[in-house]
Every structure is written in structure tokens, then in C-alpha cells.
């Protein structure tokens, strides 16, 4: 493990965290929690907690912001989003540094995430110009029009693993549609969210169109979702919190867009080069220490290529450089916090106790920071906890199969269905997998996942609705039918 610091990141200070309500940055609230660097446990700053009066003010501000923004011409909304993307890109290095400090991912990945957020804003800026209604066939002196209008102020909750691209994806679409937003990001990674909102502010977004709050998640979600001001709720986060927020939204009759957890299966079929697939799989699995919703997790591998796959995957896992995200050559950063380390330790121990073989890693690294060795478990029994709980860590689970029926049944056996992957040389198998695998996105013969121009989301417990792609604004629009007699 390497914890020495490289110097190519700009040496800017970690930002001071603040709420942003009605166009004003608010610092002077009691600290809700500290922000810690998961690479060395040092305290980077503290997060002010919103008090009920802040939430009420944010709601009233979002109502005023909506009235203004929905009537702002679409080209002007697009201009603000494009300008915010330009500002983010110009600050990519310093924001990337903030992300690495508070989240731990390698600095190069922090910078890539900023670029990704820009890509979402740019896609949604163009989407703002394509909100079309329709005109229905009508008799003379009657017009029958179908309008698409912004749904209203949105409550948006975002996670720590993608602390700037998730707000970019969500707010890009909401703002393009003409909605105002109250954003509650994760308190583990508040610096990225502040930098994001600052760019929107400097790009000319009027006060009230975006408000930013931190603090007690239960107080914030119950207050915002129950308020008549809020018309729609969106979360990127865990299944558990998704269900809680969906319940609150249901009680208030508000639609939701939920991007939740996954447990991605990777079907590796007979006839492929197991070692070659393992090389692609290792890079995708260990990226961001496995803390990605689309992270490949259950490797369901045909028995004829199983040994070559497992041996190459574990060889690469053992060679990966784990350490501080600023250190030269580091490929895998820390887990988000000590709780995540304990969770992965528990999953490994449970799988081992049930008969799994640890072929790489298997334990935490050092006592400082939250590092866990890239881990490959082979012959994992189906009743191991890790086979059904989202590990959200550097844990690859390998099992062998004999028939495609068996592989598909195993892949579909969980109540989750976000991203999935398959490797095959057979067109027939690829067609069948595409049809039968229960997931929101499937990558065949590569480990990529959809970007800004393709829909992304889950089936089953992995979520409701889709972000990005040609229909990205749908969740933020309502349809109004106007029947107008002209005389
Ligand atoms: P989380 O559900 O714990 O938190 C997400 C957000 O919800 C945070 O802002 C958090 O503070 C807030 N929150 C937590 N409890 C809340 C409550 N009771 N009321 C209101 N808000 C509450 O998730 P996380 O640990 O930040 O992120 C990891 C999870 O996110 C994983 O399950 C991962 O798969 C999922 N994720 C999904 C996608 C996707 O696109 N589907 C993308 C990234 C992450």
C-alpha cells in the first residue's frame, strides 16, 4: 500500500461547507458531522446542519424559484447549464482534488467524475430544447393541445460514491425541464456538492432555483416530502432508503425517480477466452474499490473457462496498488468509512465459513484509513450473505455453471436488477441473455455502462424510472391536455 502524496494535484484548501438557501451561503449552523478523509482518518471540515427554519426557507425559495425558472425560455436554461459545465471543467483539477480528499478515489478518477458531470449537464442542456407537446386532430373552432410542463419543485437526494456526477445527472435533467430543486447530498462528500452548486450560481442560475441543504436525513426528507411545495422526489442511493422515501412520497401522492442499489451478474459463457475476460473484469470490479452501483459482483462462469478466469482475476487483484488516491500509481483507494470495512470483512468471513475459497485479498490493509485488499472469492455457496447483499466494495464472487438455464436462473434470483454483463461468442446466447436477464442495462462483451445519452436505471428493487438518454426529462414533466374552443 502506498500512502505517500504525489504533487500533481493543485494544493487548494478543502472547501468550507455551507448550506445554500435562497441564493445565500449559510455557514453558521451547529455542526451536524465532521468530514473525514478515508485515506488517513484526518478531519477535513465540518458540515453545518439545516435547522427547520432553513428547510422552510428553502421550500419557499424553491416555490419562488420554480415560478421564475419554468417561464425562463428553454435556450436560456440551456445556456446556464452549458456555462455551469464550462466552469466545472475549468475547475476540474481542484474539484477532483476535493473528491479524492473526501471520498478517497484515485485523483484521476476524481477528475474523470467531474468530466462526467459536465457531460450530463451538456446532454441535458440540449434536452431542454426538445420538450415537445402535440396537437391532436380536432373539428373546426376547437383546438386540442397536449402540453409538457415542468412538474414543480423537486427534492433530490444523492449518494457519496459519485458525489458530483450524481447531482450533475439529476439536477441537469430537473433544471433542463424547468423545475427548481432542493438538493440533499451525502454528508460524507459535501465538498463536491458545494462546488457543483457554486458553478450553477456563477453560471447565472437565479436565486431559489437550486437550494442545497445538509443535516439530519430523516428531518430533511420528512419535512421536504410532506410539504405541498415539493411535487416530485428523486434519490440515488440504497434500496433501503429508496423504499423509505418512496413510502413518504406515496403518502403525499408524489411521483418518484429512484436509482438504487445493484448486484451486477457477469455471465461468462463457454468458448470465450477466460483470462482475457478476467482482465477486463478486474479493472471494472476494482474501479473505485467496487463502490459503484454498476460494479460487476457475481461472476457466473462456465465450468470450461472457470479456472483460467479465476486464476487471472486473482492474479490481477493481488497486483493492484491500493493506497491514498493522490499517491503515484495507486489504482484502488479506500472504502468510504470504517463501517464499510467492517461490512466487507463480515461478508468475507461469512462466505469463508460457508465454504468459499479466498483466492486473493480477504482482509483489511493497515489500521490507518479504510483500506481493504482487492478480494476474489471462488466457489462461493449460494447461501453466502455476499451472494444476495450488495457488497459495495472490492469483492468479486465467482461461481461455476454448466448450462445457460442455470446461469440465467442464478443471475435473476435476486430482487435486484440494475446493470448486468455477459461475455459470449454465440449470437444465439447473446440474444437469449438480452431477452431473459432481468436488469435495466446489459453490456455484452465489454464492461462499459450507459453514459449521458442512454437510459440508466433498474428493475425490481433497483429502482423506478430512468435517468439520462432521450427520455431524461420525462420524470420531471407533467402532461396537460388543453381543449380550447376558439369561438
Ligand atoms: P444511502 O441510501 O445511504 O444515502 C443516499 C442519500 O440519502 C444520502 O444523501 C443520504 O444522506 C440520504 N439518506 C440516508 N438516509 C436517509 C433518510 N432516512 N431520509 C432521507 N435521506 C436519507 O446510499 P449511499 O450509501 O450514499 O450510496 C450507496 C448506495 O447508492 C448503494 O446502494 C449504491 O448501489 C447506490 N447507488 C445507486 C446508483 C444508481 O444509479 N442506481 C448510483 C450510485 C449509487
Q: Gist?
A:
The protein is of the alpha/beta class and 487 residues long. It is built from 13 helices and 24 strands.
Description:
Helix 7 (217-226) packs parallel to helix 8 (239-251). A 7-stranded mixed sheet has the order 14-17-18-13-12-20-21, sandwiched between helices. Strand 10, helix 8 (239-251) and strand 11 form a beta-alpha-beta unit. It starts with 18 loop residues before the first strand and ends with a strand. The protein has helices spanning 52-69, 74-90, 92-103, 107-128, 165-177, 190-202, 217-226, 239-251, 274-286, 303-319, 338-353, 404-411, 427-436; strands spanning 19-21, 24-26, 31-36, 43-48, 134-136, 142-150, 154-157, 181-184, 210-212, 232-236, 256-259, 264-268, 296-302, 357-360, 364-365, 371-372, 375-378, 395-401, 416-417, 419-423, 441-444, 459-460, 463-464, 477-485. The protein folds into 2 domains: 19-260 and 463-480, Aldehyde Dehydrogenase, Chain A, domain 1, CATH 3.40.605.10; 264-452, 3-Layer(aba) Sandwich (Aldehyde Dehydrogenase, Chain A, domain 2). The relative contact order is 0.14. The mean pLDDT is 97. The protein is an alpha/beta fold. The structure holds nicotinamide-adenine-dinucleotide.
Characteristic key phrases:
succinate-semialdehyde dehydrogenase (NAD+) activity; single chain; binds nicotinamide-adenine-dinucleotide; 2 domains; 487 residues; alpha/beta; Aldehyde Dehydrogenase, Chain A, domain 1; 24 strands; oxidoreductase; seven-stranded mixed beta sheet; globular; Aldehyde Dehydrogenase, Chain A, domain 2; six-stranded mixed beta sheet
